[in-house]
Amino acid sequence: MSTELFFIYDTHCPWSYVTTPLINAVSRELPQVNINLWHNAYYDGETYIDENQLREIKNLTDKTFSSSYLANISNSKDATSCANLMAWAENKTPQQSLALLNAIQKAHFEQGNELDTADSFSEIIEELKLSPPTKVFRQDKLSKDAEAIVHEILSLQEIIATQAIPALLLAVNDELVLLNHNYYLQQPDAIVDAIKIEIDKLSD
């Protein structure tokens, strides 16, 4: 039986940030589930954060945003380099992809790092002992790997009939289930039991 979880997200999306703990829980408790981290490159340098999102998140979760992040909230966000780096990691070192995603989100939302230059990634790269090519840090265009993931996302979004991010999709063999991540934001570990139930249902 093939079981996969697709996480469609953007590193600069606040809702994606508060949903990542669910992915961490699945990775920790359900190692048999293959996790696909698909960055959809929504924040492209011309996209802004809706501050209403932050207020909603504060009401629904225990996540907070640093003062350094909030100080730049009125600036447009560009996750192009992050999309390129995450696509490289998914292809070249998938076992480190989730740790990389967590590190990127921590740097951005907790430390106020805009992650818009190669140097801004240096601590993350050193900490995780990664060796990505310089070209992944280009801010002006998506890499071929990142573009390929975006096209995969578009195809999947046609099937699930939504372009909302983040999105969590569970695939068991040929069956696909869209999971409502909002149910589990306050108790990330609860997503594990929900996935177990879906796997049992789809395996019958």
Kindly list the characteristics that best describe this protein.
single chain, 204 residues, alpha+beta, four-stranded mixed beta sheet, two-stranded antiparallel sheet, 6 strands, globular
Write up what this structure looks like.
There is one protein chain. This protein is 47% helix and 15% strand. By secondary structure, the chain is of the alpha+beta class. It has 2 domains: 37-161; 166-180 and 189-204, no CATH class. The strands form 2 sheets. Strands 2-1-5-6 form a 4-stranded mixed sheet, with helices on both faces. A two-stranded antiparallel ribbon has the order 3-4. Helix 4 (80-92) crosses helix 7. The longest helix is centred in the C-terminal third of the chain and has 17 residues, at 144-160. The radius of gyration is 16 Å and the shape is globular.
Provide the number of structural domains. Answer: 2
Mean pLDDT across every amino acid position? 94
**Main beta sheet, described?**
4 strands, mixed
Q: What is the succession of H and E elements?
A: EHEEHHEHHHHEEH
Give the percentage of residues in beta strands: 5-15%
Radius of gyration: 16 Å
Specify the overall morphology. globular
- Overall helicity: 40-55%
Total strand segments: 6
Strand order of the largest sheet: 2-1-5-6
Total of helices: 8
Oligomer designation: single chain
Terminal residue distance: 11 Å
Structural class of the secondary structure composition? Answer: alpha+beta
Q: pLDDT under 50 segments (min length 5)?
A: none
